[in-house]
Amino acid sequence: MIAETVCSAVSAAGLGIAAVTAYRKRFLTAARVAAYSLVPIGLVMTGVVEWLADTAFSPVAWAGFGVLGVAWVLFMTTRAVERRRGGTRKERKEARAAAQRDAVAPGASAPSLGTGSRPAAQPASRPAKASRGGDDDFSDIEAILKKHGI
After folding, report:
1. CA distances to 41, 74, 93, 94 from 84, in Å
2. Is the whole-model pTM more than 0.90?
3. 27 pLDDT more than 80
């Protein structure tokens, strides 16, 4: 009964503050204060305050909160230890195998020892203009740089 009275008084005080704020032409703030001040009376009307008051004075409820706290501490401790260890050996072995299977190019980090698919030398039958094909690209870049004075 006392909790309901306190919540009603808090709501009445909040609505009074909202009225003074609205009188000062700060309507947005007044609406926000009014919304916050209506929450306690809404909780009283729905019965939440009575349930909370009954729970607050119940030793069984506090024991339940204690058990939940111990369960949470145990859960977080086991997760921290598991992360520190990196999981079980079986999980680590499976993770390594999956990483090797899912690799895009497993041998990509190994140095290449062969000539690959490129020919060793370019054929001599190409005209001289074709060998300067790459130079034409750079000449465009050089022209742009010269235009800007670089």
Report:
1. 48, 15, 16, 18
2. no
3. yes
